[in-house]
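As noted in the main text, all predictions were made from sequence alone. Below is one such record, for Formamidopyrimidine-DNA glycosylase.
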Amino acid sequence: MQELPELDIYRSLLAEKFAGAQISGIEVSSSKIFQASNEQMQRDIIGKVLWFVERRGLHLLLHLDNGKRLLLHLGQGAYLYIGNQTDLPSRSAQLKLVFGEVILYGVGLRANDLQLLSVKEVEEKLGKFGPDALDKRLTLERFVARFAKKRGAIKAALMDQTVISGIGAAYSDEICYSAAIRPDAKIPMFEQESWERLYAAMHKVIKEAIANGGGGEHSISAIEHAAGNRPASFQVYDREGQPCNNCGAAIEKIDVSARKAYVCSSCQKDL
Ligand SMILES: [Zn+2]
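Prediction:
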């Protein structure tokens, strides 16, 4: 799982490691993953300097010094690894972005997960998404307004990137748990106070996850790996049958809008 906290951690690691560095090569395993031609790669990527790394919702944007952007999406099971010719990720990589001796590997990438775009094209692609969950302009009022047309379960709406971007299967469960609201609670039932709890929980859960290193299963480099994998610190996500850290009741796995969700039925209520 790669949601806002994990991608934000990638963003800061990539910025720290590569901002100002020149891209000396790029290799992709298939033109499905990255549709650019060899000519485009030679002209628009190789030799260019990576200026800046941005995260928007569930995407990473690598800003190149020619004004182009590399838009990277990491789907289920995909991850990044910083290594070199001999220090490789544990699974085969579909993307190698070479910065001299150092190589950024992309593992588990699927069709169109990497795209070379102009600024205008980036806006066209990402413009349909809602504000980032951590966007400072997303006040409580605006947050509530984003859900105005929604009638279904809160979990599905939290995961809907056109409502708010950055939250997926894991953190939607964690946010609902932190707000003491069931993931299958129906939006029309919500009171002002429910929204206030949900809004506060969203910030708390995401910020704590970033501070704790996220819930990613893969280390980004061998050095980090040697230091041991980060323990996932989820309260309910993927913890079916285990005791709730608050009340001791068993965490249940339920279906919400055709997706699985994890809930403590004793701590979480409909409002
Ligand atoms: Zn509980």
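Residues 192-211 form the longest helix (20 residues). The beta strands are 25-28, 50-56, 59-64, 69-73, 79-83, 93-99, 102-107, 114-117, 252-256, 259-263. These features were considered when defining construct boundaries for the mutagenesis experiments described in Section 2.9.
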